[in-house]
Amino acid sequence: MERVRSDVRVELASGVLRYEVSETFVNNGGALGEADYIFPLPRNAAFRDLRLMINGELVSGETMAADRARAIYEEIVRSQRDPALVEWFDHGLLRARIFPIAPGERKQVVVRFDVVAERQGDALRIDYFRGTEPRPQSPGTMPIPMPMPMRRNIPASEATSRAAASTFRLRYAATAALGRAYSPTHSLRESRDGSWRVFESSGGGSAITVLVPRASGDRPSVSLITHAAGADDRYVMISLSPGESRAAPASRDVAFVLDVSGSMKGEKMRQAVRAGEALLRTLRPTDFFRILPFSTEAERFRNASVPATSSNVAAAVEYLRQLRAEGSTNIEAALDEALDHEARGIPIVLFLTDGLPTVGERSQGRLAQMAADRRGRARVFTFGLGADVNVALLEELAIEGSGTAQFVRPSESIERVVSVVAQRLNTPVLTDLRLEANGVRLRQIYPQLPTDVFAGQDLVILARYEGEGRGNIELTGTTPLGVVRIPVSASFPARERNNVFVARLWAIRRIGYLTAERRRSGSSSEVDDEIRELGQRFGIPTELSSYLVLEPGMERFADAASQAQPVRPTASIGRTNGRRDMSGNAPAPPPMARATGEVAFESARVSAQQRSATTLTSSDAALPSNVQSAGGRTFALRNGVWTDLGSAATNARRVRVQPFSELYFALMREIPDLRAILALGDQVVVHGRRVTIELHAEGATRLGDAELQSVTRDW
Fold it and tell me: Do 587 and 664 fall into the same domain?
């Protein structure tokens, strides 16, 4: 029995979520089939309606409370040797028999129900879990582990065959009362269906969480979600939706700094000019702008920034079209021209280059220090075109300048990348945002503050917290009308086993900043160990783990670079010592330098995405099929055993447990964290604080009460 399609439709109206879950199954066996349809019920849900349809006919399913459902779950897990249901022991269930199912026949099951939406701060929260795929069984009746529609997050842990085609669609009325939906787990596509706003996602993991901001006058909507695995393992996600501001947006003073050295000749130059034109189109009459091309020397469109009037913009477009690519690369002069400026609004610098500095100052450290000394309030956004750029310098300029770094291959569209960033910076509504906490301590906060909030975009702040109980957070920023303070009071629990995605998102960003630091300052055992540990624990691609997925053909560069000696990643990598050929291009660096540059470039692309990650989609997609995340940990399939990639404590004892035994179920009742983990399969090794638990066919089947409590404490 295979699930070939799973479609979820959710309509939000008056605080109620109306679900329609449509699942299609096919009997791939050679005999007449019969199946159990198992649908775990949401915890603490207030149902208005619950209906079950099979192939268009209304079928009466049996609804069971959690205590009776647990016995059913245990019975199916034991008899079918399938641990997929162990996550749901505290849930009631809807159960229906599907018979007959002829060979090759398809059955469609539709479940419709209404649930009151859960509040999460100023937002409404929607959770859905798609469930695990059916497993091949011996002929006869087989269970179909099915979705739990409203679910406090349990990490995706499908241990199955082919994944079904799946979609998720949320819609609600397009009114000022509800803002733009945001998902920390999935990328959402927005569209309109008449008077409805529609958000859709397809594929990519089984657990989805969506937050829909609710308007509160001019005050931004704030939601706060925590995950706490232990005293030293607590995380918080603060999402801020700016909503609709009645005040006029702040004026910007935008500088487009463009490399026009000889290496930019041809299509690169044409794209860069079109990118500049697209940037100019985002300007409002209240904005100011500068165009600063540079090669051997820096030039300027005007002596100072000018208002973005139609005549000035038209003149700037004509100026861009007249630029020619020639000469060397003087990054020092470009930075000096861009940053030595008295801004007439919020200063924003977009800096594009395709090469290393070859004239003027060429030391990464001195260039970065010069930029730091002169940057002031300027936000710096950098664009590196091709692997010949100094990725460490561009990263440092962007990180220190509260901006982002983008790395683009020559075959890709520079115009599109610059245009996307420029459009995001179109309407600043809250600038110099800062964060203070009382009652708890926040640390390792990402993005680094202060930062800015732009219209139409959520700001997602991730941090670790220390302490527990009630805590007060205050967000402070500046609008055109003055300083705005946003107080938030929330509970910071000592233990919160749900919302594992919060810890993973924090770890993704942390790795992005650590790898940039590694390129800037060079490798160190402390930084390398933390990158490696975070990557292994949370299943995140890093340059120090086997998860990093390079583009086709990149493997040869990785192999070559792995043989090179570690070097400080400065402008000396691939340096041409200022020598150029007649066209102004630098001669090709030796093969090892190209390999090192390619790997650094690709790693910089990945870490730039990680620093700005707001969903788990890209990270989960990069995991190979033999790696799974469950219970906030990462497991690799080794010799048929799902093995925890974290380290066992030096004094940890090992407890072998026979799958599906009395002890197996007792441990999951005593240690709920194990449910998502043991659902991986019947051969699992996982490390606790002072105990390692191993599922093994020859393991123990029961323990005395005292010993069971000892294992629980050691976990």
Answer: no
